Amino acid sequence: MSGENLSRDEARERAELLSVQGYEVVLDLRSAVDENEPAEGPRTFRSVTTIRFRSAVPGAATFADLIAPSVNAVTLNGSALDVAAVFDGSRIALADLAGDNVLVVDANCAYSRTGEGMHRFVDPEDGEVYLYTQYEPADARRVYANFEQPDLKAPYRFEVTAPEGWQVWSNGVEESREGNTRRFAETAPISTYITCVVAGPYHYVTDTYTRGDLTIPLGAMCRKTLAKHFDADDVFLVTKQGFDFFHEHFDYPYPFGKYDQAFVPEYNLGAMENPGMVTFREEYIFRGKVTKASYERRANVILHEMAHMWFGDLVTMKWWDDLWLKESFADFMGSFSMVEATRFDNGWVTFANNRKAWAYRADQLPSTHPITADIRDLEDAKLNFDGITYAKGAAVLKQLVAYVGRDAFLDGARRYFKANAYGNTTLDDLLSVLAEVSGRDMAEWSRAWLQTAGVNALTPLVTHDADGRITELAVLQEGDELRPHRVAVGLYRLQDGALVRYARTEADVAGARTVVPELAGAERPDLVLVNDDDLTYCKIRFDEGSLATLRAHLGELTDPLARALCWSALWNLTRDALMPARDFLALVLAHAGRETDVGVLQMLHAQAQSAVTHYGAPEWREQGGRELAAGALRELRRAEPGSEHQLTWARFFAAGAATEGDFQLLLGLLDGSARIDGLEVDQELRWDFLLPLSAHGAVDEGVLAAELARDDTASGKRHQVRCLAARPSQAVKAQAWAVVVESDALSNALVEATIAGMQQSSQRELLAPYAQRYFDAIERVWSERSIQIGMDVVRGLFPALQDPEPTLAAADVWLAGHAGAAPALRRLVLESRDDLARALRGQRCDAAAAAR
Prior knowledge:
The protein has 852 residues and is α+β, with helices and mostly antiparallel strands. The two termini are 52 Å apart.
């Protein structure tokens, strides 16, 4: 992997030397349908690239990027170069450049099974082959020769020859066709990582968006075998609502012509913002009944990627240090536009409870970093697609809107697009325009929020007089960096069986202690909620009275956003070892049944499971699991028949099934001998039931084979692989380890499924032999496998379910003995170690509570 890296310094030097006029990329993909695998080496396709570029220094030397099994020819300015001398497997050395240059590279590039480069997928249902590309941050070089860095933008022309009967799409519209060869219109100047090709016998649906004189052809596609599940009308509805919102607020017409959206198999990401040809993971096509939260997540992703057409594609960061310039903005704009333009008007609730949980975790890891990060190379860049860059960045932008005002923020965005269209920018380019439109000191705001790491905790301190009125309400701020916060402080009281807000004020919190005078004289509250309405990025703490109120009355809090913020705060208390895990579980079992927002409910279920698995005292863990399952079954039976809440409780009950009675109920629901009124056990829910049954030995390989025969699809295969790896057998675990760690035969999707199945919290003893084997293997895996598979293995197989203290010691030994290991690999191990150390603190907190 290290030979494929590119440093920031190398990229800067190359950008100072070169400017690129254009690419012509010719791909022959007919080999994708060859019936036989090659006798040796990977399956390949021919890629011929012509790059026209200028050198600021004639006679200088540089390099082009290409990762390919073999190169047939390299020609620079009409002269053939010695391939063996100039190509080392990832770079093509270029010497004695002219002022104007033409580079032609004829290569045999490899199809991918890891979701990087040109991914090839065979549909097990009908045998059809599907291709798509995925490049971010630097995998275009697996498909064609290029200068792989975001600030060497250029226009592209693609020509693709495909098998008979296939369709092909790229960023530009199809311009001409001759036989099975398509030629696509030249793109606007874009970066390598957002070029795209999708090819295969896809099911394709079309529509049109119009606004005034602007017409945008729309397309949406998926595999043929998923067509019966594809609700393209809803995809197009959200797409049109998004275009309306962004055109109205950005005052810059969509700049890339058509707008296709492809839902593709075995995708590593949620989606990718390739202009004119956005790609999504096909799990956003729902094969069974799902909740409104699933549709909301899909809408958010659609709008996130659409925002990238401006933030990221039209205007692009110079280097990955400023990744936030696209990802933070897209994450914020996804929720902002969704709330204001679609039916999902509760999107800020999901943002507060779900997205920010990702940010809080990332910001407390030893690898935490400022939003504007120090990205030394491509391996750093790959790992920086994290909760800080996305969710914390988006939360900080939400704070910025409160700080400068909505109108100034959007005016700044409009000026930013017009000033930098088709170019590359840094932090200063954005700050200067925001300072201009807002009149605010953006340098100080940036220093506090973008250039420092860590999360603050805000706690209310309330004093009262003899009549029960507030004499003083102050907000205490903790953290290594005390930041300026624009917050709302809400006062709540119990009234007619509900917990409702009766007073609210906004205040600027700065320093360690800030008095909020506007609330002096108010009646004594039952609950003080700092950061009401979620204006800033912080961890909320409670005074003792407020915490007591929540323990007894959280389910009676009427406002869904306030309720989500309280749940988030309680989970942070648990993760910070300030609340015992058993107390958090008790809160969930007491109050989650009244949660109206199903997305928040799903998050609570995941957190409650994690509380038992990771943060509960080991001696309580089994009892906690039984309480969790019993509570879930109780709420499942109480839920409205056929409702999305019933479906959510059914999945939660299955995930936590702990007793023989639980397993018998799941088996009965599968074979029809048991029934819960209104609960439809469709194919996806059947697999949800089969996973815990597999993990506890209640079903065998034959049952899983029969289920696959019932659902002989790509999704069914992933589910079966996960269930097979979950079985409680040492032989099963040995096989799972071998196929993931000792072999590269599995695709990325099946690697992920195998790891997920292998790591069962009920099988700690079975997994114990792999703790030391993990530390012995990871450096080899990192060096031999692609970065995506390396990340999956290092994160997924970390022995987090083992006794924390010896595992922490083993991690420390590995880190001390591998100081020279790849920084990205060390970061992954450090993060997993920190999660385990946090879990140990939580276990000690929980044990201490039980001892009192």
